[in-house]
Design goal:
Length: about 220
């Protein structure tokens, strides 16, 4: 399947977040534990954190919230890949973005997140224990003036969401920069739906990349800052 690799990589990165601080959240003694070995992710030439994320406090709370957001982003990608298939047929690929299609797309993403985070227990006994979700709609880019709104208090999560919205903001700016006297109320109104879905893939991928960078930074610094 053409998209299984990025999703697998995303899941591995999210696993990294989950273990990074819990495995190392202990006082520094004379012998500090060795960081887990993730050969391809820990290559020395790779930078460990996006500069904008370097000041995130390394707390278990941050690790959990980022791992959860990473899970959500991965499930969102799976939904988006399915939606892209649906908007790639000869009869659907020329369809334009509309508010209604955008709403339906967001609902499908939310369904994918809800289904993924609350799986039925394999043996059918007892309630599934779902970790609290990071709601999917805390970041927003106004398609008219390209302004980003982020509604979370955690600076670390806010930065992850900003990186997502930055993808939309750039697309929005690019549209209006080259259509300065063009009277449209939303940059997406002239886009094909399939192109917007791909933009959204890029936005969620930016989140996952940043979460992975933060996780690698935590592992590398053994959460001692
Ligand atoms: Zn988005």
């Amino acid at each position: 399947m053409r998209n299984s690799r990025p999703v697998r990589n995303a899941l591995r990165i999210i696993g990294l977040v989950a273990v990074s601080c819990s495995a190392h959240a202990q006082p520094l003694g004379n012998s500090t534990p060795a960081a887990p070995s993730f050969p391809d992710l820990m290559a020395p030439e790779k930078s460990f954190a996006a500069p904008s994320l370097r000041n995130c406090p390394c707390s278990q709370q941050n690790a959990n919230i980022l791992a959860k957001r990473g899970e959500n982003a991965t499930l969102a990608l799976e939904s988006l890949y399915r939606q892209i298939e649906e908007f790639s047929h000869p009869t659907t690929r020329s369809l334009l973005w509309t508010k209604q299609r955008n709403l339906e797309s967001d609902e499908l993403i939310q369904e994918s997140i809800d289904a993924g985070r609350d799986p039925a227990p394999p043996d059918g006994t007892g309630p599934a224990t779902a970790a609290p979700a990071v709601p999917n709609s805390l970041g927003f880019t106004n398609g008219g003036d390209c302004k980003i709104t982020i509604s979370v208090s955690s600076p670390c999560l806010a930065e992850i969401l900003r990186l997502h919205e930055e993808v939309h903001r750039r697309a929005c700016k690019k549209f209006f920069d080259s259509n300065y006297n063009f009277t449209v109320i939303d940059y997406r109104a002239k886009m094909r739906m399939v192109d917007y879905l791909n933009e959204h893939v890029e936005a969620y991928s930016a989140e996952i990349r940043a979460i992975g960078e933060q996780a690698r930074y935590w592992v590398a610094t053994r959460c001692t800052f």
